[in-house]
Design brief:
Shape of chain B: globular
CATH superfamily of chain A: Cytidine Deaminase, domain 2
Number of strands of chain A: 10
Strand content of chain A: 25-35%
Distance between the termini of chain B: 57 Å
Radius of gyration of chain B: 17 Å
Strand order of the largest sheet of chain A: 3-2-6-7-8-9
CATH class of chain B: Alpha Beta
Number of domains of chain A: 1
Strand order of the largest sheet of chain B: 2-1-5-3-4
CATH superfamily of chain B: Phosphatidylinositol 3-kinase Catalytic Subunit, Chain A, domain 1
Oligomer: heterodimer
CATH class of chain A: Alpha Beta
Order of helices and strands of chain B: EEHEEEEE
Chain lengths: 158, 113
């Protein structure tokens, strides 16, 4: 379960990066009850658009990399009873899981979630409806389209 | 009193190893264990439990609010690892998200957070 305030916290960070024309990436921390507590945005480097990119960013060169310092920050940020339940990042255009996203080794375990927020974070203004939500199953990211199946896995609480 | 050099290092110590996602498990560290050996043991353990997937990882030692990187050949006990320490598996691969193709070090890089 993800309380809405956690998504709001993430949205603000993603939109801030979007104002600079770059994506951002973070992790959502959950307690042992699997309820999300907050989002962590570690040190990261982002690459923005290039001339010739289309308006949707689908041919873009956008990417964002967690630095070694950021990886250490993620480790330090976890309390003893906490885990990272999801990673969350923005795209300049539509929400989809790119090959780059698939290759990210940052959060890979059975049941892990990956949330892709469209339009530099703006997509979170309406909650997860406009976002891509993916769950790690059988060592692959499986899309969870909006609806009952997604609700069974991830629920946003007011 | 008879001096027993290295006595402290001749016994196992118990440590906790955590995955990048935060899953944790206890491990015994032998006096001649290196960071690389503990990394392999921990990866096998967490992989069996579906708590991590194979890849390139290194170990970091939690010290206060910082992580001290350990080279694979580092002997853990002489390096100061003690009973109750927490070590984190950190991915050695690029940790990248994005709509576009990652091209490594690039021209217009912005510190985003």
């Amino acid at each position: 379960m993800i309380p809405a305030f956690v998504l709001e916290e993430a949205r603000a960070r993603l939109e801030d990066a979007g104002a600079d024309g770059v994506e951002a990436t973070g992790m959502i921390v959950a307690g042992p009850d699997r309820v999300a507590r907050h989002a962590v945005f570690p040190d990261q480097l982002a690459n923005g658009a290039e001339q010739g990119d289309d308006d949707q960013g689908t041919t873009s060169h956008h990417w964002v990399e967690v630095t070694d310092r950021g990886k250490a920050e993620l480790a330090v940020a976890l309390g003893p009873d906490e885990t990272y339940a999801a990673r969350i990042h923005s795209h300049p255009g539509p929400a989809f899981h790119s090959a780059t996203d698939d290759d990210n080794p940052g959060l890979r375990y059975e049941g892990a979630l990956s949330i892709v927020v469209p339009f530099y974070g703006l997509g979170l203004r309406t909650g997860l409806e406009a976002c891509g939500v993916f769950v790690r199953r059988g060592r692959r990211w499986q899309a969870l389209p909006p609806g009952p199946e997604r609700e069974q896995v991830v629920h946003v609480a007011p | 009193m008879t001096s027993l050099p290295n006595e402290r290092n001749e016994r196992c110590v118990g440590v906790t190893v955590r995955t990048p996602a935060g899953a944790s498990s206890a491990f015994a560290v032998e006096p001649d264990d290196t960071a690389g050996q503990l990394t392999i043991r921990a990866l096998r353990h967490f992989e069996r439990l579906d708590l991590i997937e194979s890849g390139a990882f290194r170990l970091g030692l939690l010290r206060g609010n910082a992580i001290v990187d350990l080279d694979v050949d580092t002997l853990l006990l002489p390096a100061g690892v003690v009973e109750g320490d927490v070590l984190h598996l950190l991915t050695s691969e690029p940790q990248v998200d994005g709509a576009g193709a990652y091209a490594g070090a690039h021209r217009e890089i912005v510190r985003a957070a």
